[in-house]
């Protein structure tokens, strides 16, 4: 599974980092990916971060 952050939509709220720090980090007030593929143990929290993003800036590719 792969996560994608749309930097044009991201408002830098940090919810994704709080939810899934194994995949996301904050960089210059926007979220960035730490990994290219989501680790097995972070699949659920990564989906949760995408589902809870207030501006729908995170997309998941299965």
The secondary-structure class comes to alpha+beta
Total E-strand runs? 4
The rounded distance between the terminal residues' Cα atoms is 5 Å
* CATH architecture assignment name: 2-Layer Sandwich
Rg over CA atoms: 10 Å
Mean pLDDT: 97
Helix tally equals 2
Report on the architecture of this protein.
- The chain is of the alpha+beta class and 62 residues long.
- The chain has one domain: Alpha-Beta Plaits.
- Helix content is 24%, strand content 26%.
- It is built from two helices and four strands.
- Strand 2 and strand 3 form a beta hairpin.
- It starts with a strand and ends with a strand.
- The mean pLDDT is 97.
Architecture blueprint of SSEs:
Blueprint: E1 2-5, H1 15-19, E2 24-27, E3 30-33, H2 43-52, E4 58-61
Gist?
Helices cover 24% and strands 26% of the residues. With 62 residues, the protein is of the alpha+beta class.
Structure keywords:
alpha+beta; 4 strands; two-stranded antiparallel ribbon; Alpha-Beta Plaits
